[in-house]
From TrEMBL:
Coiled coil: none annotated. InterPro entries: BamD (IPR017689), BamD-like (IPR039565), TPR-like_helical_dom_sf (IPR011990), TPR_rpt (IPR019734). SUPFAM superfamilies: TPR-like. PROSITE patterns: PROKAR_LIPOPROTEIN (PS51257), TPR (PS50005). It comes from hydrothermal vent metagenome. This is Outer membrane beta-barrel assembly protein BamD. Pfam families: YfiO.
Length: 249
């Protein structure tokens, strides 16, 4: 029996720790008080604690406007703490649960913002990496998220900024295609280079890199001996960008 005593003490200690860990800091508080405290933690930058309080609020008071607002603000708190994937998941959960909520447009906007800023953060960390080695999936996804906002809520207060970010994303995607085309040129893969540049001309009209795309087409078709296509591309380039200084044929 004496040998079992230390084991008993050990499990008693574990039980006490579990009790402390499971203690609910919101116990005894009203829904208004829990929400107030969560907001204070959010405003003070204590994001982990704010998320805990929002989740406790939803668990204890699962129905009503405070629970709905907590679900939305959890997404925002994840975004502020740069946990972008969690922010996207939380925003999508809110959209699924409350598609007709008065703040649904903000959830769509926040989802796009999280993907957009997550991509910008990634590019800032890896700015020295060759763009042709990056997957533009995140940029396309951010564009799609903002596009859904603009389509569903054309009069939303967030639509104007979403459109502005869509323009930036479109330019970045076009630039990515140009980097890939130049990658092919450097490896004498002129068919692939011409096709990639043609994709830019067709799908990214109005972006600053269209002239360079036409120039790549001229160069690639010339190297391939497709002189009629090269002449046609040069004609379009001269007509639309007469001051462009690109590579010589």
């Amino acid at each position: 029996m004496l040998r079992l005593f230390p084991i008993f003490i050990f499990f008693l200690f574990l039980s006490a720790c579990a009790t402390v860990d499971d203690e609910d800091p919101t116990e005894g508080l009203t829904v208004e008080e829990v929400y107030r405290d969560a907001r204070e933690y959010l405003d003070e930058g204590e994001y982990e604690t704010a998320i805990e309080y929002y989740e406790r609020l939803e668990s204890r008071f699962p129905y009503g406007p405070y629970a709905e607002q907590a679900q939305l603000e959890v997404a925002y708190t994840y975004y502020k703490s740069q946990e972008y994937e969690s922010a996207i998941l939380a925003a999508e959960r809110f959209i699924k649960l409350h598609p007709d909520h008065r703040s649904a447009d903000y959830a769509y906007y926040l989802r796009g913002l999280a993907r957009f800023d997550g991509e910008q953060s990634f590019m800032a960390r890896w700015f020295s990496q060759d763009l042709t080695e990056r997957d533009p999936k995140s940029m396309r996804e951010a564009f799609r998220y903002f596009s859904e906002l603009v389509s569903r809520f054309p009069d939303s207060r967030y639509t104007r900024d979403a459109i502005h970010r869509m323009h930036r994303l479109r330019e970045s995607l076009a630039q990515y295609e140009i980097h890939v085309a130049n990658y092919y040129v450097r490896r004498y893969a002129f068919v692939a280079a011409a096709n990639r540049a043609q994709h830019v001309v067709k799908h990214y009209q109005g972006t600053p890199v269209v002239a360079e795309a036409l120039s790549i087409m001229v160069n690639s078709y010339t190297k391939l001996g497709l002189h009629q296509l090269a002449d046609d591309s040069q004609r379009v380039l001269d007509m639309n960008y007469p001051d462009y200084q690109g590579r010589e044929r």
